[in-house]
Specification:
With about 475 residues, the protein is α/β, with parallel strands linked by helices. It is about 30% helix and about 25% strand. It has three domains: about 230 residues, Isopropylmalate Dehydrogenase (3-Layer(aba) Sandwich), CATH 3.40.718; about 120 residues, Rossmann fold (3-Layer(aba) Sandwich); about 100 residues, Alpha-Beta Plaits, CATH 3.30.70. The structure holds nicotinamide-adenine-dinucleotide (NAD).
């Protein structure tokens, strides 16, 4: 039976990109994958042509049309805009899941060889500190907003559970820093605890991210699926890749509801570009993920097994992974891979048995959660001041006499400095003044807030406001270290 043809956008990218892309296309064709490649450009040449996103509309249209892309590494040349084309693609298509399989490869010797590491890191890919909302609040104090949403947490967690099912994995560890960031990191933990009972047969656990890093190094074989927030995932997915041979052999996918993009984790390796030395393993393993995504499980297993055979035999490997002095070029490696199609490895497990990924879909729309009740109880006003905390506190108490608010405390980088607690007195010119309402307000409190700001502005410079709200009677804000 002839396989249905799938059109896939191919972005060869920069540096060694075209070499590893051609190698990958050749192996896929030999494995019988029925793919029509829709070649598109992104990266350095596009930036140089004056397109600030690094990604022309034609390329975006191609991915939108095909829904699947295989991508080589992209460079952002110095002096051409400040946004990376990779980030443009992730954000444009809301590719919210970054999936990084981490599996021991035969013949790729690491300190962890022989321990059969076989895990997947599922990283939330668009929220968290990577929303990129940053402000200089004073000339010497920078802020980055860490945004974590309930719906964003739920969709990555449900995808991680679906992936566990598709790959017949039985354990999932959600890893957060909920012990410190109770509202943001805690959001993912809370949603994980809510939904995990819906997935019987997959054992859930929570592990604090720093311990997760530690456990990955001392006992990596305990993990099956790790799901985590964006920043945590950025770090531990690279750490995990290092356990099995590093970024040069690490594949990845970036998945959203409308599109999926598969790419090697490594960069464009400009030092070896054009020399026929590049190792295509990472892009090839990314293409294996892509084949499963489009439903060609047969070709995926065939390529994956041929790769394991080639690596375990150790002949014609590229210089970066070959035993010293035996390294060859990309072409010889590809020829060997193709010759090994149809064989199964003998020293490591063959490719796993996969089922289609039943991906939960999130229709477009504005996701909102209604509060059972909501009340404003105060206001945090961020103030730039060179005064001593005691002096600033006294001044704000005086300024707000007779207003709707009273000063509850001053914090400096999260530590209470007024009323004074003793302890370290190292402060910077960036204070959070927490004002609480003297009595509940009717309405939004716009007039009262304006009055408060006017009173503060007579003597002080403020740069940021945050309403203190309760939702369903529960505080929607945290307390400072030491705050009563
Ligand atoms: P790199 O991954 O390109 O290179 C790091 C080292 O690994 C180099 O020694 C390189 O020769 C080697 N290497 C990487 N891939 C290899 C392969 N397939 N075969 C053999 N050796 C390989 O990282 P870098 O030098 O930090 O970055 C170079 C450029 O790539 C930069 O412009 C960077 O922005 C870009 N980059 C792009 C992506 C992406 O598009 N996803 C990721 C990382 C870096």
């Amino acid at each position: 039976m002839t396989k249905p043809q799938t059109t896939v956008t191919a972005i060869a990218g920069d540096g060694i990109g075209p070499e590893v892309m051609n190698a990958t296309k050749a192996v896929l064709a030999a494995a019988g994958a029925n793919i029509a490649w829709d070649d598109a450009v992104a990266g350095a040449e596009v930036f140089r042509a004056g397109i600030a996103t690094g990604c022309p509309q034609d390329t975006l249209d191609s991915i939108a049309r095909n829904g699947v892309a295989l991508k080589g590494p992209l460079e952002t040349p110095v002096g051409y805009g400040e946004k990376s084309a990779n980030v443009t693609l992730r954000k444009y298509f809301e590719l919210y899941a970054n999936i990084r399989p981490v599996k021991e490869l035969p013949g790729v010797i690491t300190p962890f060889s022989g321990r059969n590491i076989d895990l997947v890191v599922v990283r939330e890919n668009v929220e968290d500190l990577y929303a990129g909302i940053e402000h200089m609040q004073t000339p010497g104090v920078a802020q980055c907003l860490k945004l974590i949403t309930e719906v964003g947490s739920e969709r990555i967690l449900r995808l991680a559970f679906a992936l566990a099912r598709a790959e017949k994995r039985t354990k999932i560890a959600c890893s957060t820093k909920a012990n410190i960031m109770k509202l943001t990191e805690g959001m993912m933990k809370k949603v994980f605890e809510r939904i995990s009972p819906e997935y019987p047969g997959i054992a859930p656990s929570h592990v604090i991210i720093d311990n997760c890093a530690h456990q990955l190094v001392i006992n990596p074989e305990q993990f099956d699926v790790i799901v985590t927030t964006n920043m945590n995932g950025d770090v531990i997915s690279d750490l995990a890749a290092g356990l099995v041979g590093g970024l040069g052999v690490a594949p990845s996918s970036n998945i959203g509801d409308k599109a999926a993009m598969f790419e090697a984790v490594h960069g464009s390796a400009p030092q070896i570009a054009g020399k026929g030395l590049a190792n295509p393993t990472a892009l090839l393993l990314s293409a294996v993920m892509m084949l499963r995504h489009i439903g060609d499980f047969e070709a995926a297993a065939s390529v994956e097994n041929a790769l394991y055979v080639t690596l375990e035999e150790g002949r014609d490997l590229t210089g970066d992974i070959a035993p010293r002095g035996t390294g060859g070029g990309t072409d010889a490696y590809v020829a060997r891979l193709i010759a090994n199609l149809g064989r199964k490895p003998t020293t490591v497990a063959a490719a796993r048995d996969y089922a289609p990924l039943e991906m939960p879909h999130w229709p477009p729309g504005t996701y909102a959660i209604a509060a059972a009740s909501r009340e404003m109880v105060g206001l945090d006003v961020f103030i730039e001041s060179e005064r001593e905390p005691t002096n600033l506190g006294a001044s704000l108490v005086m300024a707000t006499e007779g207003s709707a608010f009273r000063l509850n405390g001053l914090t400096n980088r999260g530590v209470q400095v007024w009323p004074p607690m003793g302890g370290n007195t190292f402060v910077v010119d960036h204070f959070c003044a927490r004002f609480l309402l003297r009595k509940p307000l009717v309405g939004e409190g716009v007039a009262e807030i304006a009055d408060l700001l006017q009173r503060i502005s007579r003597q002080h410079r403020w740069m940021h406001l945050e309403k203190l709200q309760t939702f369903g009677g529960i505080d929607g804000f945290t307390k400072a270290q030491g705050e009563g």
